[in-house]
Specification:
The structure holds 2 protein chains of 2 kinds.
Chain A (H helix, E strand, L loop, with lengths): L1 H5 L3 H6 L1 E4 L5 H20 L9 H21 L2 E8 L5 E7 L14 H18 L3 E7 L3 E3 L20 H12 L4 E8 L10 H10 L3 E5 L8 E8 L3 E2 L4 E11 L5 E8 L2 E9 L7 E8 L4 E9 L12 E8 L5 E6 L4 H9 L7 E7 L5 E4 L17 H4 L4 E4 L9 H12 L4 E5 L21 E2 L7 E2 L3 E5 L1 H5 L9 H10 L6 E2 L3 E2 L4 E8 L5 E9 L2 E6 L5 H6 L6 H15 L5 E4 L4 E3 L3 E8 L11 E8 L2 E9 L6 E7 L4 E11 L2 E13 L12 H11 L3 E2 L7 H4 L8 E7 L4 H21 L3
Helix pairs in contact in A: 3-4, 4-17, 6-7
Chain B lengths: L1 H11 L31 E3 L25 H13 L9 E3 L12 E5 L8 H13 L2 E7 L1 H15 L6 E2 L40 E6 L5 E7 L3 H6 L8 H20 L1
Classes of the chains: A alpha/beta, B alpha/beta.
Chain lengths: 757, 263
């Protein structure tokens, strides 16, 4: 209809520029229109008919003026100036998505790939070949040029590519365009890109070269029955037998309100099972599921939902993540200023935790200490008391300060403890006590900076009165406070635990700190009980009581709430404490990707950045042994980077080593895995939004397959390749004659209605 | 108000308030002025029943055996704790019962005197076992000779039929945690101050430092047999009682207390 009324397709108007081909100046047209309007006003005013007065005469004047203006405009010869591709001198690149998502059978007449081939064979290619040279390409993780259409180029399509990288493929087309007159790109795809989308750089480059990308979308835009796992987040490293949290995100279509189970497995062994109820169709749903990391080793944690009845795509129901369960035992030094029950029962709480090495120093009298550390790896630096050298203190991963006042430590030792958190990245836990926190003079210590609370400016904050415990909203989500897998039961469990024997007013939490528990004294009020925060490279916490030991004595022997809480708290304290060399990668699971990015953070004994180290990554895989030199990062001292192309799918281990001369700066081991054929199982619906955006950003147009026949006409209008600028007359558009007729007949009808004629 | 406090105490399982019982020897021993002050620690004294005429003498000497030396011994000892250690202790002891209630679990260090006279019921033994396995510590003292030992063991076998009583090794941390106490000797009761100045009572000639260990190799029951530390603490302010006995008694107690609070 548009083309009938306006003579040309809409794309001509969108790409063309309006010009007046008559050669007379525009100002003259304006003057002529004004003159015509004035003359008509005069004659209408002089009209003798009493029935055409006032508002009616204005309407008549308006209709006549519009008619005159339109006629004058036609005399000025309006036209469109538009760039068109020179016939047979330009190339049209036809890019067909050959990834495995194109094999999905939802295109009505077979797979998406078949639908695309059928469309091209139904005359589209022939139509294009009449005006242009046609080049065929297939797209998956790379772009490959196909044989000519007449030589069966489309027969090589198999819809078996392991990934869809539209952006990268466009870049390759642009590279060809540098030496070839490519006038337009036609992309036949489902838009199921799995490279993270098309980057702005690629879009900008396409726009700079003015190559319109026309897209033809295949496949359903929404599955009727499908569950898709869209994300799983797990910590990359963990201590043995740690309780971990997996944040699982998924959505579904067609199963709203239905129940299902999310299973977390390690090599077929079910680690956790979590009941869910699906929310509305397409709603992104997130669940936090706890599981046990298990013993030392690299764990391929598979998170999935068992296929449901009638599910159309069952290959997108699970995701795999790697968790390195490290063989290490972080050291924690607990300095206690007085023999007391919390000391005894805290030690007992973690004595069976093989992943925590707790060394303690206890002030038994004014001038005696009692050191306990029977671990095989016990450092000798504490046999005479709290470390006085920073290297000795930095041998530990965590610190606990009990009821020991700040002046017990020298100013140097206090500064060392601050550096322990800030620079070394250790964890520091303050317990309540009669010589702790505000009562211990910490408000006047440099350690005041690292505290997660603003200490009250008063004494006698430690109170030996009972208090119950209540989890805060953040506490209900925290792994530290999780005694029961079920969040509701966990909250109730804390309320019912035996009361604390004492509590301390720690002041108010500082900005950025998180309160996980409140103490509810029986005398009334509410105080922060467990407050945590990150500080520098480390973390600090205040547990403002020395009376939780009572849980161990009041609860039955089989109830391990006391042990579980302290174990989780101390693991949190040290789990992320870095070693002198820490290797990492942004993605341990390379799904249909081959580029591994490695990063190593290297520190010396004092945990200062080691900017002059020699750092190497030794990569070991199935039949692969390679050493990669890591280069220093220009912006971040002590950080070393490397990139390596993973040659084939499989599991790999990387040992990163660092040395400075003969000094060994440490080593770290991590793992990663490359899996191919995974990405195409996800996001298989047609991503129309991406295809439309790509077209609109590049001056092209999105087509449904049934509308693609229009492409033959639209594609000629391009400013890329070899073009010629054409002028298309507009004066003879049917719509103009229709308009003239409407104006004139409109006046006649009005006059008749008013009884003038 | 009493009802409200009682209900709250029952709901929260609050510790029972301090109470003084009639003593075997003392009934008007002064209560310290700060006896209601709240502190971290105190030593609980086990209130047990002693119906047996253990030695078959007449008239039977079995009334309130659990209060022997009480409370003078306790008050002296707790003053010593304040002076000799950094333990924040109350000035008064806490009598406790194995009565099936939870109160005893609020006092993880328990002392019993003259346990040669005790008569633990099965229920009491079961609660003492639970108390110890949860982390409590039991120290007993001032029982002498074969007869009292057998009576004590009759009760202790109900508590731990599967765990042996063993001699505490000189190298055990319990003898080194605060003072090095490898050279120990018999601490006699007040009878030493009277002729014929016997160090022992009945046939308890040799002091025995024994104990029962938990599964982690920690002492949870410390048995002081054939000695009378209680008298030593009780009479430590009496010039006729030798300082060397009182001194050792205090040092043993301090070591046991600190050992418990650190193990």
């Amino acid at each position: 209809m548009f083309e009938f009324l306006f003579k040309y397709p809409a794309s001509v108007f969108s790409k063309g520029t309006l010009v007046l081909a008559g050669g007379w100046p525009v100002w003259l047209l304006i003057v002529a229109v004004l003159a015509a309007g004035g003359t008509l006003a005069y004659f209408v005013q002089r009209s003798t008919s009493a029935r055409v007065k006032g508002g009616r005469s204005a309407v008549v004047w308006l209709l006549q003026t519009l008619l005159a203006s339109l006629l004058l405009l036609m005399i000025w010869h309006p036209a469109l100036s538009v760039a068109t591709l020179r016939p047979q001198q330009n190339i049209v690149a036809i890019v067909v998505d050959d990834s495995s998502s194109m094999a999905v059978d939802d295109a009505g007449s077979g797979s998406r790939k078949n639908a695309a081939v059928n469309l091209l064979n139904s005359g589209l290619v022939k139509q294009l070949q009449e005006k242009f040279q046609v080049r065929l390409y297939k797209l998956s993780d790379t772009l490959v040029r196909l044989p000519a259409y007449d030589k069966g180029g489309l027969d090589t399509l198999t819809a078996s590519g392991t990934a869809t990288h539209i952006g990268d493929s466009l870049k390759q087309v642009l590279a060809d365009a540098a030496s070839l007159p490519i006038g337009a790109v036609v992309l036949l795809s489902d838009g199921a890109d799995n490279s993270g989308g098309i980057d702005l750089e690629t879009i900008s480059e396409v726009r700079r070269q003015r190559i319109p990308v026309h897209t033809i979308g295949f496949g359903r835009e929404k599955m009727a029955h499908d569950v898709e796992m869209t994300g799983v987040e797990t910590p990359p490293r963990a201590l043995p037998d740690s309780r971990l949290s997996a944040t699982v995100t998924f959505h579904q279509h067609g199963y709203a309100g239905q129940k299902a189970k999310v299973l977390i497995k390690d090599g077929g062994k079910v680690l956790a099972s979590h009941d869910i109820v699906f929310k509305g169709d397409g709603v992104e749903q997130t669940e936090n599921i706890l599981f046990n990391a298990g013993p030392v080793g690299v764990k391929a944690i598979e998170v999935g939902i068992d296929p449901l009845s009638g599910e159309e795509n069952q290959r997108n129901n699970k995701l795999t993540r790697l968790v390195n369960v490290d063989k290490r035992t972080p050291r924690i030094l607990y300095m206690e200023g007085e023999p007391r029950w919390e000391f005894k029962f805290l030690r007992r709480a973690v004595e069976d935790d093989q992943s925590i090495h707790l060394a303690t120093i206890l002030r038994t009298t004014q001038n005696k200490i009692y050191v306990q550390d029977d671990h095989a790896d016990a450092p000798k630096s504490i046999k005479d008391g709290f470390p006085i050298r920073i290297d000795d203190l930095f041998e530990f991963d965590g610190l606990i300060l009990g009821s020991v006042d700040a002046p017990y430590f020298t100013a140097t030792q206090q500064q060392m403890m601050k550096d322990f958190v800030d620079r070394r990245g250790g964890g520091l836990l303050f317990l309540g006590g009669k010589e702790a926190l505000a009562d211990g003079g910490y408000a006047r210590s440099v350690l005041n900076d690292v505290l997660p609370v603003k200490l009250p400016d008063k004494k006698n904050t430690f109170v030996r009165d009972p208090a119950t415990v209540e989890l805060t909203a953040q506490g209900r989500e925290s792994l530290i406070t999780r005694l029961d897998e079920d969040p509701e039961k966990n909250t109730e469990r804390w309320k019912k635990l035996p009361y604390l024997m004492n509590f301390q007013d720690p002041g108010q939490p500082k900005p950025g700190a998180v309160v996980l528990m409140d103490a509810i004294p029986t005398s009334g009020g509410r105080l922060p009980l467990l407050t945590i925060q990150n500080y520098g490279r480390g973390r600090t916490a205040v547990y403002a009581t020395a009376g939780s030991w009572r849980r161990r004595m009041l609860l039955p022997l089989a109830d391990k709430a006391h042990e579980m809480f302290y174990s989780q708290l101390l693991r949190w304290l040290v789990n992320d404490t870095p070693r002198r060399l820490m290797a990492s990668t942004p993605r341990q699971m390379l799904n249909d990707e081959s580029l591994l990015k490695l990063r190593a953070d290297v520190r010396d004994k004092a945990f200062l950045p080691a900017a002059d180290a020699t750092v190497e990554a030794h990569i070991l895989g199935d039949g692969v042994v390679e050493t990669v030199a890591m280069r220093p990062d220009a912006l971040d001292a002590g950080v070393y980077m490397a990139e390596w192309t993973v040659p084939k799918p499989g599991s790999y281990v990387v040992e990163v080593t660092a040395h400075r001369g003969v000094e060994d700066l440490g080593r770290d081991v991590m793992s990663f895995r490359r899996d191919d054929g995974v990405a195409e199982n996800f996001h298989v619906e047609q991503n129309r939004e991406l295809l439309e955006k790509l077209s609109s950003e590049t001056g092209g147009r999105y087509y449904k397959p049934e509308d693609a026949k229009k492409l033959g006409k639209d594609i000629s209008y391009s400013e890329a390749g070899i073009t010629v600028r054409e002028t298309r007359d507009l004066w003879d558009m049917p719509v103009i004659f229709l308009l003239l007729l409407m104006l004139r007949s409109g006046e006649w009808l009005l006059r008749r209605r008013w009884g003038v004629i | 108000m009493v009802t409200t406090w009682g209900a709250l105490r029952a709901q929260l399982q609050l510790p029972r308030p301090f109470r003084e019982y009639p003593g075997y020897e003392y009934n008007n021993f002064p209560i310290p002025a700060d006896y209601l002050d709240k502190h971290e620690w105190t030593r609980a004294r086990l209130h047990y029943s002693s119906p047996f005429n253990v030695h078959g003498v007449y008239p039977p000497d079995n009334r309130n055996r659990w209060t022997v030396d009480y409370p003078r011994s306790d008050r002296h000892l707790l003053e010593g704790v304040r002076r000799l250690t950094r333990i924040d202790t109350k000035s008064v002891e806490q009598p406790v019962d194995l009565d099936g209630e939870d109160d005893v679990y609020n006092w993880p260090f328990m002392y019993a005197v003259e346990v040669g006279y005790w008569n633990l019921s099965d229920a009491e033994a079961q609660q003492l076992r639970e108390y110890l396995l949860r982390g409590g510590f039991f120290m007993c003292d001032d029982f002498h000779g074969t007869v009292e030992w057998e009576n004590f063991m009759a009760g202790m076998r109900k508590v731990f039929p599967e765990r042996p009583v063993v001699d505490l090794d000189n190298k055990d941390p319990i003898f080194h945690v605060l003072y090095d106490l490898e050279d120990r000797f018999q601490v006699p009761g007040m009878q030493w101050t009277y002729p014929p100045h016997h160090m022992y009572e009945y046939d308890g000639y040799v002091p025995r430092w024994e104990g029962i260990y938990d599964d982690k190799g920690r002492v949870m029951v410390a048995i002081c047999h054939n000695m009378d530390l209680g008298d030593a603490w009780e009479n430590s302010d009496d010039p006729v009682y030798p300082e060397k006995f009182a001194s050792l008694a205090y040092r043993i107690a301090m070591n046991y207390f600190v050992y418990d609070l650190s193990h």
